From TrEMBL:
SUPFAM superfamilies, A to Z: Acyl-CoA N-acyltransferases (Nat) (SSF55729)
Keywords linked to the UniProt accession: Acyltransferase, Transferase
GO MF, any single term: acyltransferase activity, transferring groups other than amino-acyl groups
UniProt keyword Transferase present: yes
Amino-acid biosynthesis among keywords: no
Domain named N-acetyltransferase: residues: 8-162
Annotated protein name in UniProt: N-acetyltransferase
A Pfam family matched in the record: Acetyltransf_1
Length: 169
């Protein structure tokens, strides 16, 4: 799948994007409201964890990575075959330009084409920009997982969000 939203090109995320993808991930980690992770993994670990058909990079007109989205299985149990968990990250300098929306649109299209009925994620309540873009993409907040984990020595809540596909019956 390749699509273009304004001057942003959405392409399958591949090894040639690795360095920039991991740098964007680390920038999100360093900001403190994106994930419990403290360090971006090595590319091999990242690559192995993400579903190949459900990961995309947003590129500018020069081929620089502006952001990425990727999904993982939530379980190997067959009952959960249609459920994935996703992450979406945008380079700090590219925020507010519709990059996350374009990436989520690509992810939704690829998952629905594959018969996946639920995309879910956990978002820190303080990450209001992420919550807003997800809401616009059709996600809803299911609830709060209170004090679900420690982050830099502080207990953090996580909002559990999901998007149920209206196309999958």
């Amino acid at each position: 799948m390749t699509s273009r939203a304004s001057s942003t090109l959405i392409v399958p995320l591949a090894v040639e994007h690795a360095e920039q993808v991991l740098a964007i991930y680390q920038a999100g980690i360093d900001e403190g409201n994106a994930t419990f992770e403290t360090t971006a993994p090595a590319w091999d670990t990242f690559d192995a964890a993400k579903l190949p058909d459900h990961r995309f990079a947003a590129l500018d007109e020069h081929g620089a990575v502006l952001g990425w989205v990727a999904a993982t299985k939530v379980s190997d149990r067959c009952a959960y075959a249609g459920v994935v968990e996703h992450s979406v990250y945008v380079h700090p300098a590219a925020r507010g330009r519709g990059v996350a929306s374009a990436l989520l649109k690509a992810l939704i299209a690829s998952t629905e084409a594959a018969g996946i009925w639920t995309i879910q994620s956990g978002i820190f309540p303080e990450n209001t920009a992420s919550l807003a873009v997800h809401r616009r993409a059709g996600f809803r907040i299911l609830g709060t997982r209170e004090r679900i984990g420690r982050h830099h020595g502080t207990w953090r809540d996580v909002l559990l969000i999901e998007r149920r596909s209206p196309a999958i019956a």
